[in-house]
Structure formats: C-alpha cells, structure tokens
C-alpha cells in the first residue's frame, strides 16, 4: 500500500487523505475496525436499521423523494452517462485537494449541504456535522429548518468556514432576524433556497403523517430562540411548552415551508438586507435548474448559484441536476461562481461535477446516512472516506490539481443511455 513517507505528503497543503486506506488495511493487526462501511448502499442500509421509520422516510431514502422518484433516478443516470478518462505517466507527487470558495481556503471542493432538523437522525443533530467540518476544514452550511440554534451550531463549528441557508419567511421581521443572527454568529454567506416554498408530494410521508415539525421536534432551538418568532407566539398567545405542537406548526407553516411564492421582483430587497447586515458578504441562490433562471440570477447580481434539484425531493420527473449543470455552465460559467448538489454518492461523482464546470460540490445524503448510522463518528468516517477516495482518484486517474479536472477529463455517452442491469438507485 502507499508508502507513508511518499513525497506527496510534503508537497501539499492538506493532509494526504488517501493514507486512510493504508491505516484501515493495517487496523486489523491492532484489533481495530472502522465503525461502518462507506459503500453508499451498505451505509444506507445500516442507517435504515438504526433509525425510526419516520427518520428513515424524512430524507434518507427514495421514499422521501417527490412522486415516483423519477428526478432522483435521473440524477443517478446522469452520473453514469459521464465517464472519466484516466491519464497515465502524470506527476501526481504534487497533487493537492485544496481549493478556495469566496475567500475561504478549504481542504477540498466538497462541502456539507444544508439539511434540516438533524435531530431526527441523531441527538447531536447539526452539532455533529458542524464539528466534523471544523476539524477537516470543510465548508459547513446550516439549514434554517435546523433543530439546533444558529448560535450553538456556530459554536460547534468554531473557526470553520460556514454559510447560512435561508428559507425566506413571508414575515420580513423573521427573515431579517435570522440573517442578523447568522451574521453575528460568523456565517459568511447567505444561501437562499428557491425551490422549496413548500415540500413536494412524498407518498410514504403522507401515508404515515411523517412530519416531525407537527410532532416530536416542533420548531427546534433555531425557531424558539428567534426574537421575531417569539413575537409571533406572543401575538398568537401560544406557549412554547404547553402548545408545543401548535408552536412547531406555526414555525414551519408560516416561516419555513409556508407555501407563499417569492419572485425575482422582491429579490433585490432580500439581497440588500443581507448585504447591509453582513457588510457585503456573498449572496447565493440555490435550486437553479433553468438556463433562463441562471441568466436572471447573474443579471440580478448574485454572487453565486447552486445548481440543484433538491436531490429529487421537490419536482418529480424533472431534469437531472448534472444535465442542468452542463447547460448553465455553457451559458454563464464565466459570469458567476457555480456550485452543484444532488445525487453525489462518491469521489467519481464529485470529479464529474467539477469536470462539467462546477467550482464546488455539496454532499447531503452521504453524511446524513453516516449521522443516522453512527452519530458524529459516522459522519467523520464517511466524509474522511470520501476525501480519501477523491485523493486516491486524483492520483490513480492522473489529475494532480483541481484545475486539471475539466471537460477534457470525461467522455459523455448520449442522453437516454441506461444503466446496465437494475442497480439500487435509492
């Protein structure tokens, strides 16, 4: 296995993540074993064994996708369609996974996607991934549908780079309050999610009434510690202790997934609020799939976009996010900072998204599966494993620098290509 004194260790700015493979191969000699298998399918099954039905349905399996999961299927199919072209006799002794995002030097072009109400999956909730991101110097994004507070999650993240994802409340006071709290707590960008004014239709969630905000988790600390939301409760004469379910419903129904649509016409107001509050920090739109919307975002002056279809959770039968990425990069790739999420399952997927023009990639279900299976230890093992796999892939495929990963690095099969056999796509 790899020599632990190989020259790349001294020629890079990040740890040589690939040495994790050697450590795990050696571990049985010392009676040590990893907490879980990082294969996505096996990891998913372990999370399913250890979670409640509600936790499993919430975000971890195909059941949480919109409709019949056709968009989720399209995401995975798109990754199969693009194939890596390995290079040989390339000097990878100087390879490095490091990159920068809005002035933050991070260990890899991989960040934690914002996912809500993490207490469903483990009692440590958002605190666990925030700590792992801090320790690995990766970007962490907190969802405004989170269960732990903006402040406590920031404390767990420490000096790590972190962004705040906003679900735009129709109550301006609540929207501004959350942005102010985020800025005070060291979140250095606002990511506005644009595709989730309300949740898409999920058959299994509807069948069993699986909606944690109406039941055991309510508004979580994030809502209950918000001054503007507390004013709403006072006006409605609701008590956070005695009216827990009604309070949770008020938070989610009136401030997070509220069903009110916002439009481009009002976007400048929100951008202005964040820019004023944060003293000019980046403002990003997440959920872009249309070239027309990408052009509009550039026209409006946003600092970046996340090409995402919410991993297939919102619109059934929609375009694959990776296919959307190709078109959007061609249209505006030189005019704004383009990021990607939806469907990432391993290092090859990260590589392909970067090759198609994304400058940064977010992972979601992978780290949540780790959280559900083994808490913070599970998140750490899964993410370190992904970093190791990506580092090794750069080595064996012959791409020593992130900038080397471009469209020349992949060959693409025609659209309509199908997976061989019938793989598990959940």
Automatic annotation (TrEMBL):
Q: Which residues bind FMN?
A: 114-116, 143, 165, 193, 286, 308, 341-345, 364-365
Which UniProt key words apply to this protein?
Flavoprotein, FMN, Oxidoreductase
| GO molecular function (one) | FMN binding
Q: Which InterPro entries match?
A: Aldolase_TIM, Alpha-hydoxy_acid_DH_FMN, FMN-dep_DH, FMN_HAD
- Report domain FMN hydroxy acid dehydrogenase positions: 32-415
PROSITE patterns, A to Z: FMN_HYDROXY_ACID_DH_2
Instruction: Tell me which residues bind glyoxylate.
Output: 167, 310, 313
Cofactor dependence is on: FMN
Q: Which residues form the active site?
A: 310 (proton acceptor)
Q: State the PANTHER family in the record.
A: L-LACTATE DEHYDROGENASE (AFU_ORTHOLOGUE AFUA_4G07050) (PTHR10578:SF75), S -2-HYDROXY-ACID OXIDASE-RELATED (PTHR10578)
Instruction: Family membership, please give it.
Output: Belongs to the FMN-dependent alpha-hydroxy acid dehydrogenase family.
What is the official name of this protein in its record? FMN-dependent dehydrogenase
Q: Which lineage?
A: Eukaryota, Fungi, Dikarya, Ascomycota, Pezizomycotina
